[in-house]
Design brief:
Elements: H1 25-28, E1 30-37, H2 39-45, E2 49-61, E3 65-76, E4 79-89, E5 97-102, E6 112-119, E7 122-123, E8 126-127, E9 129-133, E10 141-144, H3 147-153, H4 155-164, E11 174-175, E12 204-211, H5 215-227, E13 241-247, E14 251-257, E15 264-272, E16 278-286, H6 296-302, E17 321-328
Antiparallel strand pairs: 1-2, 1-10, 1-11, 2-3, 3-4, 4-5, 5-6, 6-9, 7-8, 9-10, 12-16, 12-17, 13-14, 14-15, 15-16
Protein name: Lipocalin/cytosolic fatty-acid binding domain-containing protein
Signal peptide: 1-15
Pfam family, one: Lipocalin_2
Length: 340
């Protein structure tokens, strides 16, 4: 979706379609796959681009209040490209007419337009598709949460809408290739219990872990691992160093510095022992600008509760758990070094 970067420079007589009257930003965040775009996009700024995605997450800004931070990604000749920026609602009475600023290629004073002209139904707290243009009507982007689901359930509705609104000839949609793709990591949708980060674009991991053990045992094991570093326990990921910064009866806040001493991440564990099991809300966030972390933030959390079945060292209790990943930059990379 790099075409949006230069839309503010373009003037012309496209098929200007009004934006929808309502848009809930909380339902718009997450990963989108580009289904198609018009020739202005596909034959110019996205020439030869495949596997195009857009990732959105809510953030706060001192000037604009709530904003939608964004990462647009595409693959050209096997190489992945990213651009970051943010969108904001300039006029609360027109919530689907967003203004866009980018971090690269465009001067900081320049602002583009991003008009949502059609929205799909809400499923699992997410709009299922979005048709996007701009204030000139020159650009067209069709986005969906799932490529196959869109083709089966929504394509005919969107195609009819585009035909009825003059998206033909030069403005007709051109399909975006979404086959055999290696996608960029998604933006983390950080929950309220996350530690926060001073930078807008950063890696992280937000998860819910349900333990068969009591919360007191889980907390005791985490504290014992941190306290036993380099003697009775060592970090199985890359021999990083943990430090507990705050501890209460129901929370543990920590920092972790990577084994090479280069990066320090922050993490929070919140414990709920109100049911038959111990439910832990856990979150780790990088403190520097990063779109990739190669599993580090997930491993920051995992290394403190993984058990012998995971080939992890333990101190007091061999914990039994089930992980639910809520949002994570990378939760697939192994957290246990082969030497452990």
């Amino acid at each position: 979706m790099f075409a949006v970067v230069l839309l503010f420079l373009l003037q012309g007589a496209g098929a200007v379609v009004p934006a929808v009257s309502e848009l809930d930003p909380s339902l718009y965040v997450g990963r989108w796959y580009q289904i198609s775009a018009d020739a202005l996009v596909a034959d110019t700024f996205e020439l030869k681009a495949e596997c195009v995605t857009a990732d959105y997450a809510l953030a706060s800004d001192p000037t604009y209040g709530t904003i939608i931070k964004l990462v647009n990604s595409e693959t050209i000749n096997g190489k992945l490209f990213n651009i970051t920026g943010y969108a904001y609602i300039a006029n609360e009475s027109e919530p689907a007419e967003l203004s866009v600023k980018f971090d690269e290629y465009v001067p900081s004073f320049a602002t583009g337009s991003y008009w949502v002209i059609l929205l799909g139904p809400v499923v699992n707290n997410q709009y299922q598709y979005s048709v996007v243009s701009d204030s000139t009507g020159l650009s067209l982007f069709v986005l969906a949460r799932d490529v196959a689901d869109y083709a089966e359930n929504y394509a005919s509705t969107v195609d009819a809408f585009l035909a009825d609104n003059g998206y033909a000839d030069f403005f007709a949609p051109i399909a975006t290739v979404q086959d055999d793709c290696t996608y960029a990591p998604t933006l983390v949708q950080a929950s309220s219990y996350c530690p926060t980060s001073p930078v807008m674009f950063h890696a992280g991991c937000d998860e819910t872990v349900t333990f068969e053990n009591s919360c007191s045992d889980v907390m005791a094991e985490i504290v014992a691992r941190v306290g036993g570093q380099y003697e009775t326990w060592s970090d199985p990921h890359n021999n990083g160093t943990y430090a507990i910064t705050t501890q209460t009866d129901s929370t543990i806040q920590l920092s972790r510095t990577t084994g090479n001493g280069e990066y320090t991440d922050h993490m929070n564990f919140v414990f709920d022992d109100g049911s038959a099991s111990c439910v832990v809300s856990a979150c780790s966030e990088s403190q520097v600008t990063s779109l990739y972390d190669y599993g580090t933030n997930h491993c920051n959390l995992f290394s403190l509760y993984c058990g012998t079945e995971d080939s992890c060292p333990i101190v007091m209790y061999d914990l039994t758990y089930t992980e639910k990943i809520n949002s994570c930059t990378d939760a697939t990379t192994s957290c246990v070094a082969s030497s452990v």
